[in-house]
Amino acid sequence: MTVIRRLSVHTSCDDTLVDSASDTLCDDLPLRTQQIALHFVIFNFDKKEAMDGNGADNKAAVCQMGLVDYTTDLLKQAMTRFAKNAAGKSRYTILDLGASQGRNSLQLVHHVIKHLDASLPSNASPDILVLHEDQPANDFATLLDTLISPASYIYARPNIYTGVISKSFYEQVMPTAAVDIAVSYISAHWLSKTPAPLPGDVVMYNDSETKASVAASTLATWQQAAHDDLVAFLRLRAAELADHGSLCMTYISDNGSPLIQEYGRILREAVQDMVAAGILSSASQDRVAVPMVFRTTDEFLAAVAQVPELELHEYEHVPMDVKFPNATESTKFLSSVLWPSLDASMTEQERTDPQVRQVFNSCMAAKMSQPVAGASVPFFEQFTIMYFYGHLTRRPRANTDAP
């Protein structure tokens, strides 16, 4: 049965790194952390466009960090299950998939380590290696700065080691059975590539106009790509996880609420306004297709059913109300996520013209100031992000395929 909970988060999306774990971090603890740089041969791939660089994603991430607090009981349940079933070790490896610039990861990993330590025997003091993965185009300079910032989990206890992996999570990023705990928060709604062009004004799959104006064959292509990508993601994690290893994941989802379709509509209309203003060409508009899909519960379960190596435990929708003070702040948040997809569709002249983004932000802010779905208040005041949480564990391997 799918459970729906609701969380409300107030935010101003400012530049300050929030130390949400300050009650447990110790400022005078000696730094016993090593930065481990892991480099891989990178083949040509087409994952989601990188988030904005220069720390832009970290500035917006406070709008999402409440999800970690809200799911902490679910993370505790997952770590309790892991400690009960997995073999005791002197070192555990945690893999954070889709780390971006790291701000969400700090709080997420802190909670995981806290619950893991609480679930282990009192005399256990294992080393912990945390590896943060993201695509090669990611802003790794900001990520590394974030990992050693005062808010980092590395100060929470001795013997924590950290590093980064520059590789797509649609590839195997760790050796077989090398990962004990994998976490992926707010990433798996991004597809490995754009499945097919979206015709006309439609720029997102989850848009109220999509089914009315997009050919059935194009819809089927997107649906199949979303299914195949999630199956591939789960199979790769099944390979990387040790026996009884734990995977906790969240992504933006579709629970059937009409508001879910409004984000696609608002982006579509903002792009239309940019074309009408003469700041963006119709050809660039035609190329825009944001490679993300908000999956339903049934779509998640259909993918899990194809990966028998993993056992599904808790799963539920988590609606999060984000209270922005004004339309401008809500636009900053959305722009940090959506702008790279628009930027990739533009001509070089449009891409280098600072007015283009200024007009985009103005158009988006105007849309966010309008009521939607029959409401009497502007959209930024009823801004809801629907997340989906799932916990899966790695079934024990047969002796014949154990590493």
From TrEMBL:
MF terms in GO? metal ion binding; methyltransferase activity
Give a yes or no for keyword Metal-binding in this entry.
yes
Domain of life (superkingdom): Eukaryota
Please name the InterPro entries in this protein's record.
MeTrfase_7, MeTrfase_capping, SAM-dependent_MTases_sf
Q: In its keyword annotation, does this UniProt entry include Metal-binding?
A: yes
A Pfam match is Methyltransf_7
Please name the source species: Aphanomyces euteiches
Keywords of this entry: Magnesium, Metal-binding
Q: What is this protein called?
A: SAM dependent carboxyl methyltransferase
